[in-house]
Amino acid sequence: MPPTRSGAAPGRPPVDVLAVIAVGGALGSAARWGLGELLPHRAGELPVSTWIANVTGAFALGVLLVLVLELWPPQRLLRPFWGVGILGGYTTFSTYLLDTRTLLEAGQPGRAGLYLVGTLVTGLAATWLGIALGRALVQGATARAGGRHTDTEGSQP
């Protein structure tokens, strides 16, 4: 099929979107690698660096999505760069599961279960807190601007 005006084949993201995702993914992955180097762990130990990356990434994604959807003017490349690229590269489901498997293989089923469930629960809580903070930021920004933001008034994340 011939490309569209955006340069992408029908049904495929435009090249500029793919480029910002790739750059963001490289930056996010480098940040996660740096965190892993800063907080290494051995087999049988809780993988704190992966947990920190996933939980802080979930929190940041909660804040980001509220700001993108409710405060900032539409910007076509913002979500692909930050949400898919940086935070997608920074957080890691595959390492989370590999770390769980490594704990099991090291004879640590209790730690593996704690890590598996604990990461999920703290990640969801971090997302909720990120959404709550994002909504507070939106309400504060609109109040300072003299306007009201009614989409989130009185709602819970």
What would you note in describing this structure?
- Helix 1 runs antiparallel to helix 2, helix 1 packs parallel to helix 3 (78-90) and helix 2 packs parallel to helix 5 (109-144).
- The protein starts with 14 loop residues before the first helix and ends in a 13-residue tail after the last helix.
- It is mainly alpha-helical and 157 residues long.
- It has five helices and no strands.
- The longest helix is centred in the last third of the chain and has 36 residues, at 109-144.
- It has one domain.
- Helices cover 69% and strands 0% of the residues.
- Structural Rg: 19 Å
Number of strands: 0
Distance linking N and C termini = 43 Å
Number of domain units: 1
Number of helices: 5
Strand portion, in percent?
under 5%
Q: Helicity range of the residues?
A: 55-70%
Order of helices and strands: HHHHH
SSE topology:
Elements: H1 15-38, H2 48-70, H3 78-90, H4 93-105, H5 109-144
Helix pairs in contact: 1-2, 1-3, 2-3, 2-5, 4-5
Task: Give a brief outline of the structure.
It contains five helices and no strands.
Question: Which features characterize this protein?
Answer:
157 residues, mainly alpha, 5 helices, globular
